[in-house]
Design a protein that fits this description.
The chain is an alpha/beta fold and 221 residues long. 36% of the residues lie in helices and 19% in strands.
Length: 221
């Protein structure tokens, strides 16, 4: 099956419509982050989520680490999914707590793939979330990098994570472009793909690049 596609860093209703026309299945909406592109207000996230409701799933990217605060943010934003870009304050136990607070929301845990430790980390979270998203950030940097870096990580590690967690959908992010997406799919075999900077021109979502990405990802070059 061809991978599902999330176009991230959606900044407006106009960009949401462009992404949907390109064939996106999900839209990523970025709340406040310590660094990276695409940040918009929670009010704008709610407005976009409401605008596309019924036509696509929406994903709230949050850097908050307290389950109660995340639940309150999600209730304000009204997205389909919560993407946890950082480790919560009590690791897996906080994810379990959050699940009880937001039973109607999908939960994805971001795993920043730097080395083989990502395989162990993925196995720890997989039973407790609805998806793992493999990205190329650096939470240990002096200013945390929680996504949107445009960097590619080792897709062979991603492939191991996909293989070892067959019950959990795995999404691949990090430096994906129309030019490399076919190789990414062939190597990692993810459930879905997540793209931001690779389909933008001068910071704006580029409809032609987005359509090209979607077609190549689905094997329609």
């Amino acid at each position: 099956m061809s991978p599902r596609i999330k176009i991230c860093c959606i900044g407006s209703i106009a960009e949401a419509e462009t992404a949907l026309l390109a064939g996106a299945d999900l839209l990523g909406l970025v709340s406040r982050m310590p660094s990276g592109p695409g940040v918009i207000s929670d009010r704008d996230i709610a407005r976009i989520a409401n605008h596309v409701r019924g036509r696509a799933e929406t994903v709230l990217l949050t850097s908050l680490t307290d389950p109660v605060a995340i639940a309150a943010q999600w209730r304000e934003c009204g997205t389909s999914v919560i993407q946890l870009t950082d480790v919560l304050q009590n690791d897996v136990s906080s994810v379990v707590e959050l699940r009880k607070l937001v039973p109607k929301a999908g939960l994805w845990q971001v795993i920043h793939v730097k080395d083989e430790k990502a395989v162990t980390e993925s196995a720890m979270y997989a039973p407790h979330v609805d998806g793992l998203l493999l990205d190329s950030g650096n939470p240990e940097a002096s200013t945390k990098q929680l996504g949107g870096t445009g960097r590619v990580h080792d897709w062979r590690i991603s492939r191991r994570i996909v293989s070892e967690n067959p019950e959990t959908p795995v999404w691949l992010a990090g430096g994906l472009t129309p030019e490399n997406v076919s190789a990414a799919v062939e190597t990692a075999r993810p459930h879905g793909l997540d793209v931001c900077s690779g389909v933008r021109t001068n910071g704006q979502l580029d409809g032609a690049k987005a359509r090209d990405f979607v077609m190549r990802a689905r094997g329609c070059e």
